[in-house]
Amino acid sequence: MNKKNVGLGIFVIVLGIAMYLASFGIKDFAAVGVGATFFPRLASVGFVILGTLLIGQVLRQSKPVANANPSSEATIPRKNTYSVILSLCLLIVFLALLETLGYVICSALYIFFQILILTPEKKKKYLLYGTISALSSLSTYLLFARVFQVMIPNGILG
Amino acid sequence: MIVEGIMSVLTIKTISLIFGGTVLGILFGSIPGITVTMGVALFLPITFSMEPVQALSLLMGLYIGGTSGGLISAVLLNIPGTPASICTCFDGAPLAQQGKAGKALGIGIVFSFLGGMFSLIVLFFVSPWLASVALNFASYEYFSIGIFSLTLVSTMSGKSFVKGLISALLGFSFTFIGMAPITAFPRFTFGFKELNGGFSLLPILIGLFAVSQLFESSGEAEQEVKPVEYSIKGFGFSLKEFVSQKWNFLRSAVIGTGVGILPGLGGAICSVVSYGVAKKQSKYPEKFGTGVIDGLVASETSNNASTGGALVPLMTLGIPGDNTTAILLAGFMVHGITPGPLLFENNGVLVYGIFTALVLANIFMIISEFGLMRLFVKVLTVPKHFLLPIVLTLCVIGSYGLNNRMFDVWTMLFFGILGFGMKKFEIPSTPLLLGAILGPIIETELRRGLMRGRGSFLPFFTEPISGAILVITILVILVSAIRTIRKTNLKKRTS
Hints:
The structure holds two protein chains of two kinds. By secondary structure, chain A is an all-alpha fold. Chain A contains five helices and no strands. Chain A has helices at residues 2-22, 38-62, 78-101, 103-118, 126-147. In chain A, helix 1 packs antiparallel against helix 2 (38-62), helix 3 (78-101) runs antiparallel to helix 4 and helix 4 (103-118) runs antiparallel to helix 5. Chain A is flat. Chain A starts with a helix and ends in an 11-residue tail after the last helix. The model of chain A is unreliable at 65-74 (pLDDT under 50). The mean pLDDT of chain B is 87. By secondary structure, chain B is mostly helical. At the A-B interface, helix 1, helix 2, helix 3, helix 4 and helix 5 of A face helix 8, helix 9, helix 18, helix 19 and helix 20 of B.
């Protein structure tokens, strides 16, 4: 926990510095009052102060409670971290193919594989998952695209 | 104008939209892990092609239904369906364990309704008045209110106020991307054309509150849920029990509405505060948590009373009272309507239409929660691993449908990852959202105010209303800083 907060503090400070440096690239003029760089610079100073405060808080507490909370580092078991990463990759693939393949195909495939990732092992019922994904992707498409006239990528089916 | 407003809602189409919205809202609210905020965000795209009054009526139905729906899973599963129903679990679940689930549900539903109606009366009388006051607000006041709201939400949400402020500042910083206000010079676009317009609010919202939930659930093992058996006869409780709660009800309704009006706080804090006060004022505080109806009444009255309260700053100032009203704000903007004092002058019919829709939504809520309870309980047992992927595809539709471009969908994913990461670091995401909404207001109004005052910061402090708000803001920061220092010292001593 403490290590996590120190890391976060450092990240926030670096973010502040980076933003400050990047603010020099902004074209600016202000005849009266403040210009376009005022708030970005103010925010970067804010980030540096807050990051320092966060690290300061950890250092003030750290001696007595250094190892009091070892379990909090491992609240997600390894297998579940794996499924979070898998979900993320699946989502990226889904979005990358969305415009080419179209919503219906893409979302059906996505729902199917995402259910597989989320379902606990042993009891996988592929036929059921397949039906759920096909039906829900088709029905959401019809509902949103046809009834409510929302634009949805059609892809190769369009 | 009032009559015209009421009539604008009384069409079969609009009434069915409100009813459908309320029922769906209850479903979203009752399923743990799927929140009201998510529900309203997902249904926003449906409203793109509707008339404003119909669109907002549907969204209001979802909001009212969703806020109340959380009580069903709180009582029957001992899992809060929404963060606002955490305190409902404390006494609702023990009552259900004692075989009095019907009574717990009955009390929860009736007091949800009464709390909601109380806050609507306040909304009806307070908001036109506040709007007329706000008509005289200039840049100074808007700037100060923006700063005050952002400070309040940063210090109140989450455990650490430093992290709250980091979150708010992060949200603010995202609004730097794109054209700068007033002078319209591009900032931090790094040569990407899509970034010229900045990020749209909707993908940020969907990412933070829906997509991050999918990642969160991927990391958790799903438990099988088994609702407690229940049966409701009549309202489920006696008249004597009802009368015994009158002061508790009134107090909780006032707290819920009052805290709800404060920007960014929302139902969860309202119910925690009311529950705490009810326990403190009770003759038998030791019984709280074992299944006394007082706790249930306090929690359910006040979280629903927060709905009318949260709508006050949204409609009169354009500042959302909680996460869900932030999406309602997006709902207004999609239809080209800017909430604020002028809304009452220029769009009075719509305002009173919305009020009517809210009253109807509360009535539909109580009717459907008594009438369709079997259906809601059935849906509770549908595994989350079937629902979440479908919800995600709806998120994609919502983000894409806004501007018909993939950029918004990628933005949604980016904020989903950010939201998930923030949860892991225990950084609250509400301040980020408020930062993203209030950032442009604060920046524009400061620059306008400075131009008006010829570069002087002094008027921000010398204008009476603006000055008073800034003083309160400084007090809020001081109080939270002192509280944090005390807490750290206490921790040090105890360890």
